[in-house]
Amino acid sequence: ERVGDAKRTIDTVEDLLGVLAREQRGANEMMARCHRVLSHEGLRGDAVKDIARDIGNFLQRIFDLLLSKAVEAILARAGLYGRPAELGDYARQFQSLVVPDDVADVNQDGAMTDEAFAAMRLAGPNPVMLRRIDAVPANFPVDAARFAAITKQDLAAALAASRVYLADYAALSLQVSGTDPAQKYASAPLALFALDESRSALAPVAIQCGQTPSNACPVFYADEGRSWELAKIHVQSADGNYHELISHLGLTHLLVEPFVVATHRNLAQQHPLFLLLLPHMQGTAFINNAAINSLIAPGGTVDKLLAGTIESDWAVSATALTSLDFNGHMLKNNLKIRGVDDPALLPDYPYRDDALLLWDAIEGWVGDYLDLYYDSDADVVEDEELQAWYRDLISPEGGTLSTLGQADPAGGEGRGVFTVAYLKEVVTMVIFTGSVQHAGVNFPQRTIMSYAPAMPLATYAPPPVRVSGALPADAGLAHLPPLQMGLLQVLVGELLGGVYFTRLGDYDRHQRQSWFTDRRVDEPLAAFHSNLVAAERTIGARNLERAIAYDVMLPSRVPQSINI
User: Fold this and answer.
1) Which CATH number is 331's domain given?
2) Per residue in 121-171, pLDDT tens?
3) What is the distance between the alpha carbons of residues 564 and 498, in angstroms, rounded to a whole number?
4) Residue 39: what pLDDT?
5) What is the pTM of this model?
6) Running DSSP on this structure, what letter comes out for residue 170?
7) Domain region containing 522
8) End-to-end distance of the chain based on CA atoms, in angstroms?
């Protein structure tokens, strides 16, 4: 196979992993070039077109290799092709790669243990699904007696005491089950969780594998043995699909892209907002363009790995973005809307606690920076470039972010950016999304998500139904991906989760001189750096006390922008 500029023979899985490691290094070098060009030319000039082409060719070359007949033959020779004979076949796929810790969290039924399954909702790749509820939804007929038998709590009392939580994957109802490489089964489950009376542990209680209850879509409970284990596999698969299509693609990559375009279209290169935002946008348009033409193209890796047809996957991502409540999606607002903002009610929520640390650090930095240039709300209203930027973002022909904006404090009609305070919130949201939130959903692809039984990106048997007899011991294996899809999940996760370029707050890296030439910026930037150092220490100390370390939001591991 020809990979990069050198001809290399690939005969074994180890050879393939070696190629992937070299390509990771090449990706970092490519992003350094991208950073240099964008810093001096913006999204203009032939060099930008060259970078877009090179990044697109880079991804296409890798994915063509991973999906090639030659690699298929290598996997077949290595016994890593077709249906698994036993669960251990998936762990053997890692070869010389580090086997992720979550291998130990999957039981012999091929499902996550109840403890690990609950922990994924709080500190997994997609830790944004839990919502505290005060009533069980009508389409999820959980039996109060079964709830009491499992939790040793009365359901009504637990609801009234704010100890019951729901993960609802209704947004995946748009998925149509795919058939590449074989029949797959998409689902939109609901999962109910409860805290114990001391609020020290969250546990799963009930799962329904679809949105409409029926004999073909029953509620399974945590005391139902192997049927329960199969139901958990389908929830984990739905969580992986929601993660990739909504939390990752839709609400980081695609959410930031309109800001990239509007910033270059409407703000002069010396506009203070352009200077602040550009480092947090570098590489985003390029990687999105490359992904559209390779990663999420028909017949590409997403088409093969995820549960739905690629057309229905596109619909899921697009709908999530177009229906987004922009202000409600800001971290603090989102936590409050979901009812998970109060540590007194939900003490152990690593995503919330670490994300808030970094949100506050970014918010302080953005506030101090913008205060240098906007003395009053009138300055915001009278900034013609800023107002053009906003109009472009909400335009149906532009960014289509129709919910972006605030009500006019003066009582006028329409929405807009009228105050310094709201501008600070918007800019904080953009920077947080392009750095911290993306890191939180991208880098677990290399760890937690790379082990297919922990998070199968598609299931290959239909959701379970209630049966009279006992299920066979190996029933779970039929629901998990073929081995070649499991290895593809390993390799794609290794690539996408293994490219780290730039670091949050490091604006001067790869620059010939200081990025900010206004010396008034020095003091607030130094304060931002100090806050990031303090956040690193705080998260490190928290991880020493946590049952499972949550390290994806350590500032030292958070890139400035979405560049992979």
Assistant:
1) 1.20.245.10
2) 999 999 999 999 999 999 999 999 999 999 999 999 999 999 999 999 999
3) 9
4) 61
5) 0.94
6) G
7) 2-107+115-450+480-557
8) 24
